[in-house]
Design brief:
It is elongated, with a radius of gyration of 19 Å. Strands 1, 2, 3, 4 and 9 form a 5-stranded antiparallel sheet that branches. Strands 5-8-7-6 form a 4-stranded antiparallel sheet, with no helix packed on it. The longest helix has 7 residues. It contains 2 helices and 9 strands, in the order βββαββββββα. The protein is mainly beta. The two termini are 33 Å apart. The mean pLDDT is 92. Bound molecules: zinc ion.
């Protein structure tokens, strides 16, 4: 009996993937690890990739280019801000390139990257590190299955690279 299940909203999908940027830099890959399991339609992967997964069958291999608008967003100049060093914990060892977690006005977590330190002035980029980038995914669909009751009620996939709880 052949496996005719295809990717649709509410299905648990297991996939191998490779993510490279336009300059060829590989930023993420499941190679040599368990494939990634996620729940289709639950916004656990970037929108452009989730859209490209719809209707795919087990064994499908394909490449998709996800634009910033459907990936991690465009870069926003206003998201680069200069803050005072004393706004960081006293014992924080600040250096350029350091990433740290902060909260926005709505108490949502966001990641800041220190761009520059000049005296007491610390320039922080709050853009996602992949903002403004095309995301070049190479995908192989490994498994498509119905979620367990537990996965449905949790709203995410378990096992094979997914959260265990
Ligand atoms: Zn769970």
């Amino acid at each position: 009996m052949s496996d005719t299940r295809t990717v649709a909203s509410g299905m648990v999908v297991t996939m191998h993937y490779k993510l490279t940027l336009d300059d060829g830099q590989m930023v993420d890959s499941s190679e040599g690890q368990d494939p990634l399991a996620y729940l289709q339609g639950a916004q656990q992967i970037v929108p452009g990739l989730e859209k490209a997964m719809e209707g795919r069958a087990v064994g499908d291999k394909f490449d998709v280019i996800v634009t910033p608008a459907e990936g991690y967003g465009e870069r926003i100049d206003d998201a680069v801000q200069t803050v005072q060093r004393n706004q960081f914990p006293e014992d924080a060892e600040l250096r350029e390139g350091l990433q740290f977690q902060a909260m926005d006005q709505d108490e949502n977590p966001l990641i800041g990257t220190i761009q520059k330190i000049e005296g007491e002035a610390v320039t922080v980029d709050f853009n996602h590190v992949l903002a403004g980038q095309n995301l070049n995914f190479a995908v192989e669909v490994v498994e498509v299955r119905e979620p367990t009751d537990e996965e449905s009620s949790h709203g995410h996939a378990h096992g094979a690279g997914g959260p265990e709880q």
